[in-house]
Amino acid sequence: MTRSLFARSGLERLSGLAGKNTLVVLDFDGTLSPIVVDRDRARLRAPTRRLLAKVAQLYPVAVLSGRARADVATRLAGLPLAAIIGNHGAEDGEHTRESPRVRRWQAKLERSLGSLPGVEIEDKGQSLSIHYRRAPSRTQAHRAIARAVDALPGARRVDGHAVVNVVAQGAPHKGTAILRLSKALGADAVLFVGDDVTDEDAFALAGPDFCGVRVGGSRRTAASHHLRDQSEIDRLLAELIRLRTPRLRSRVPPALAALAALSLASCDPAPPGPIAIEPSKPVPAVTASARTKPDPPARAPFNVLLLLIDSWRADVSWTGYPRQTTPRIDAFRREHCVAYANGYSLSSYTAKSVVPALVGEYPSAMRRDGYFFTRYPDRHNLFISERAQAAGHRTLSAQAHGYFLPTFLTHQGFDVHRTLPGGVDLKEVASVSGEPLTRLAKEVLGAPANSNQARGKRFFLFAHYMDPHHTYEQHKGVERFGRHPRDLYDHEVAYTDRWVGELLDFAQKKPWWPHTAVIISSDHGEGFGERKHNRHGHELWESIVRVPWLVCVPGAKPRIVSDVRRSHIDLAPTIADLMGLSATPPFRGKSLVPELLGSEPALPRRVVVDQPRSDLMDRRRAVIDGDWKIVAFGDDRAFSLFDLASDPWEETDLAAARPEELARMKRVYDEESKKIPLVEVERGPDLKGAPRGRRW
Questions:
Q1: C-alpha 558, offset from chain centre
Q2: pLDDT (tens digit, 9 = 90+) per residue, 143-178?
Q3: Could you give the CA distance from residue 488 to residue 264 in angstroms, rounded to a whole number?
Q4: DSSP codes, 437-458
Q5: How far is residue 609's CA from residue 611's CA, in Å, rounded to a whole number?
Q6: Rounded to whole angstroms, how far apart are CA atoms 341 and 566?
Q7: What is the mean pLDDT of the chain?
Q8: Angle formed by the axes of helices 46-58 and 254-267, to 10°?
């Protein structure tokens, strides 16, 4: 018989685990997420997500699920987890490998079970799950499924909640996965929480350094403790926070302290400075905020390399994406960079995101024309390159897309502005440019006049990589992931990673490298069917405007920042601060350098994403406050509302279901919008969606 984890003996056990380097492993369905009829709608509740993010700053945390790794990883996007393991422990690598034997099982099961109503076979690459929650008679459905599975050669049947899992006999299971991960992380102890028969392989590890917790009581479990039901998972997470948070580990009774931690998670106060959680290393047992702040390193003007990768989505390896598409950038990140897991572009496509980011202003507030390929007149817009040029630094631009030709006025303030020899593509971006762009950037940086460091002189280089932008080309010697559009896109990202890595390797061998900061990000993301939207532009969905953002500064501790959101409105002031440039006239955004170097905490700030009208785009604006996002359409005629904590891909519009929250977010939207003047376009065609005569 198990004991309640919140009885005295259970709390003492947790306290003992908190004093060790304990690996926390959690199942997903029925543990982190409530069981739902439609498995595709399973997700973390917002309070659970916030608590889990805080626990992951204090302990190494892994999620171990029966789902395919790619499936569960998308539901955990943005969380700084040590590992995500799928397929009941068999899938801990970057890719789901398809098994010919599983394909044969699937074909047989489809023939024998295809006529059963309410039964669905889920292919997870290395295993199968047969769901029968919707069956008219679950008992009859289970009997038929069990007979069919037991007849499969080499198969092992594992029953769950209205699901039968089919795995290979002798395949890795949750117990072996935990042992493997614990050894890799150098953990002294393990806390595992699960809810199903499929978790018994892990509960069987019971011992002095292993605590198994079953969600829901069971007489036939090897777990030593239990939670009453899934609703108690938040209390457990809060208790783990309390045990490693000095201000909560006081003389206050544990129950009250846990309630305090729950309250802190729900109101989302100023978070502690996050720490990096890398799968290959043990994680420190205290947060940065629990230590004395280090003295910031001596500040000096830096060179700045700004590398933007067109259409690069935010679901990368360090935010939980299961494919490793950027191994070279990722290796560089671990050594040199602060990674913002929740970075945002200023708009939904290049012409409304890049130049505004280089100026430090929202596109709606800038002098511009009304065309899709927007021109920003020099006399009205002060580029960061112009500030650096005025200070006597060398300004360099190496480009691979037609939008960066001088005719579009994107060359302002650059001493050297070069595009690829032989011409550049303007529309379909069918050219392959990663290798020649890297070659061009090396040539520009290699010229002594461009990298002269005498008398404190520095340089600013901006290069914009294009290959992940549609169309998708094939590259020899680069991993291929499949034939679907997303597979081809990932292949293009991997190709770009190779050449960005080459440029970074080149830079690190130069004498000016110790005085160089690197910023790697994207101008926007790319849609692959989220909210029925593909490609980019037109809308402001997370798939399109949330982007990777690495800031790599000498003296800044490499880490992942996952509990605040940051916008490219801060890009130009950050570059100015790094290079010691004047902030007059003032920027709209704020330099990130103090929080990068640890002299200031990373506090939450609102994010605005702005899409003014052009001849091809109607007006959109989004504001994110904490985990809530409001999207305004046209001239604020309609609004959508999303809780990004529980719904990171905006599947459920809560505008009708949460009227009080919608009203609050409308007030937030109005507050932020009043700060951004609506500047009329100077010339060009009629603007899409605008009333007659309206020029913004």
A1: 17
A2: 999 999 999 988 888 887 788 888 888 777 899 999
A3: 43
A4: HHHHHHHHHHSTTTS--GGG--
A5: 7
A6: 9
A7: 86
A8: 110
CA distance 629 to 646: 12
Candidates 46, 10, 48; CA nearest to 230 is 48
Structure letter (DSSP) for residue 210: E
Counting Cβ atoms within 10 Å, is residue 365 exposed (0-12), middle (13-18) or buried (19+)?
middle
pLDDT at 295 (0 to 100): 38
Cβ–Cβ under 8 Å, residues 21 and 179: no
Distance from the Cα of residue 332 to its chain's centroid: 17
Compute the distance between CA of residue 542 and CA of residue 547 in angstroms, rounded to an integer. Answer: 9
Separation CA 571–CA 356 (nearest Å): 10
Residue 376 DSSP symbol: -
C-alpha angle with apex 458: 452 to 461, nearest 5 degrees?
Answer: 100
Contacts (Cβ under 8 Å, ≥6 apart) of 347: 353, 356, 363, 524, 540, 545, 609, 610, 611
Task: Report whether pLDDT(583) > 70.
Answer: yes
Amino acid letter for position 544: I
- Please, are residues 368 and 375 in contact by the beta-carbon 8 Å criterion? yes
* Greater pLDDT, 156 or 653: 653
Q: How far is CA 498 from the centre of its chain?
A: 21
Residue positions annotated with a catalytic role: 27
pTM for the whole structure: 0.67
Structure tokens belonging to residue 310: 């067109």
Q: With H, G, I as helix, E, B as strand and everything else as coil, classify residue 518.
A: strand
Joined together, the tokens standing for residue 440 give 């061009």
Q: How far apart are CA 673 and CA 669, in angstroms?
A: 6
CA–CA dist 164, 187 (Å, integer): 32
